[in-house]
Amino acid sequence: MSSAETTQASAQTGPVRPTEEDSVAAAGSELIGGPIGRRALLGASWWTPVRVIVLVAIGMFALGLIQKAPCYDGGWFFGASSQYTHACYSDIPHLYSGRGFADGLVPYFDKLPGDMQYLEYPVLTGLFMEVAAWITPGGGSMQDQQQWYWLANAGMLMICAAVIAVCVTRTHARRPWDGLLIALAPAAALTATINWDLLAVALTAAAMLMWSRGRSLAFGVLLGLATAAKLYPFLLLGPLLVLCWRAGKWRQYGAALGGAAAAWLVVNVPVMLFAFDGWSKFYTFSQERGVDFGSFWLVLAQNSDSPLGTETVNTLAMVLMLLCCGGIAALTLTAPRRPRFAQLAFLIVAVFILTNKVYSPQYVLWLVPLAVLARPKWRDFLIWQACEVAYFLGIWMYLAYTTSGDAHKGLPTDGYHWTIGLHLLGTLYLCVMVVRDILVPDRDPVRGAGGDDPSGGVLDGAADVFAVGPATRPARHAAHHDGLAHHDGLQVDWGADRPTDGGSL
Questions:
Q1: Per-residue pLDDT at 487 exceeds 70
Q2: Could you tell me if residue 472 is inside a domain?
Q3: SS3 231
Q4: CB 466 within 8 Å of CB 413
Q5: Which helix (H) or strand (E) holds 168?
Q6: 10 Å Cβ neighbour count for 6?
Q7: Which ranges are annotated Polar residues under compositional bias (predicted)?
Q8: What's the whole-number mean pLDDT along residues 70-79?
Q9: What average pLDDT does the structure give for the chain?
């Protein structure tokens, strides 16, 4: 093979560089000296993409900790409004004393004083909180203990952030540098230590990595553990079912479903058997909780003389969610080319967030890894992140306004409604871009670099066995890496149909 052919083959199989495909990434790289050169990439170096991205993620996480410094120095303890005006609020120190960890109470088994009665978190998150309480030094004032508890949790959550960075970077083998999007996501840095969501996000990211490697059972186990930490990960089983239906991969889906169910049961059944009232608190609390911050339901309620009751909102939100699920299923079966798993995973979690009756600012963490895998376009990602940062500031300024009495420091209700609308529009915008990529696969930045579904595992390059409407006229599946697809005993070369305009983004 000639040197020219070797270079061409290397370019086709080597890692995709965002600075060559994405004008926003190229412009941003000028801040650190410009795009990395070919010789630097080809040379042996300790600075692999995974190591660089993990270090950047830890650095951004540390900046998020620094942003919480005003609260650490007293904002959590000496004034309700100061933790909002500095936008540094966190549930962690407040729940240390408010949920019995400071008193040595055992989650789910010991009753709490007041109306809450039991810890309102899923079992695996409760275990995470309890482990942090075990390593929190005793003695000293309650403020000292709360500070140590927050630091203990911050250290454990930083490990979760590093796991997420590694998993996302390695899921798309040819696009490792897309992981910089999650490492540099400003909304993720700002919200990482508000609550314990990063645990479920890390387990979900690890599950996505396992599925991309064809390890269906491991995917299911990790997704079951993620669901034991937060409810949303189980939603991924829905679009995966439709994808496996279209590709005929029932055995792999069965392994994933069985692994998820088994892992969830192993974590939950012991607590269900011996402390059912405590175990069920999360589910009853979620059902009984009224319309709350961040949702369009709140905007409707605060602008209505007779707001809807909680049961009515629960029903309407469920109907909206089911309609969206039906739309995603129809899109999956009729798309001209089978959607990528990451695209549908992002859409299903996004519509759950959009239709839910509450949107806490840390929920953005659920979407960040999925957004990076679904549409790694810097412009669109940063537009969405800007909307989320605006909402992050908006909710704290609104709470500052409501807690500052006659001083009215902060953002009034109408202004807060605008930030909710901005968050909703930003998320919808990214959803529209993902749907467009599904309907016009040539515009998909991941497929534009070659291949079919790098996060799809057994779905990557698989032929359809069932499709509806446009998906059958004609098939436009990406083939396996050798450019050949097999269907009904026929061998067809689809190489000429591969997208050719996605290499320059």
A1: no
A2: no
A3: coil
A4: no
A5: helix 142-171
A6: 10
A7: 1-13
A8: 81
A9: 85
Length of the chain: 505
488 vs 80, higher pLDDT:
80
Query: What is the residue type of 469?
Result: G
- The token duo for 496 is 């000429």
CB-based contacts of 299: which residues, under 8 Å, 6+ apart? 417, 420, 421
- Give the per-residue pLDDT at 505: 28
**Nearest Cα residue to 282 out of 77, 120, 416, 116:** 120
Alpha-carbon dihedral of residues 492, 495, 499, 500, nearest 10 degrees? Answer: -160
If we measure between CA atoms, which residue out of 300, 322, 306, 448 comes closest to residue 375?
Answer: 448
pLDDT bucket at 13, cuts 50 / 70 / 90 = low
- b/e 226-262 (16+ beta carbons within 10 angstroms → b): bbbbbebbbbbbbbbbbbbbbbebeebbebbbebbbe
DSSP state of 485: E
Helix-helix angle 123-134:216-229, to 10 degrees: 70
Tokens of 240: 């995966």
pLDDT in tens, 245-262: 999 999 999 999 999 999
Q: Give CA angle at 96 (92, 287), nearest 5°.
A: 70
- Does residue 232 belong to any structural domain of this protein? yes
Tokens coding 399 = 């709470």
Mean pLDDT value of segment 383-411: 89
Is residue 136 included in any domain, yes or no?
yes
| Buried residues in 493-502 as b, exposed as e (16+ CB within 10 A) | ebeebbbeeb
Query: In this structure, is residue 497 part of a structural domain?
Result: no
23-37, 349-363, 486-500: least confidently modelled range: 486-500
Token output for 299: 């905007």
Number of domains in the chain: 1
User: Do the beta carbons of residue 191 and residue 294 sit within 8 Å?
Assistant: no
In the block, tokens 């059944």 appear at: 269
Domain range for 382 is 17-32+46-458
User: pTM of this prediction?
Assistant: 0.87
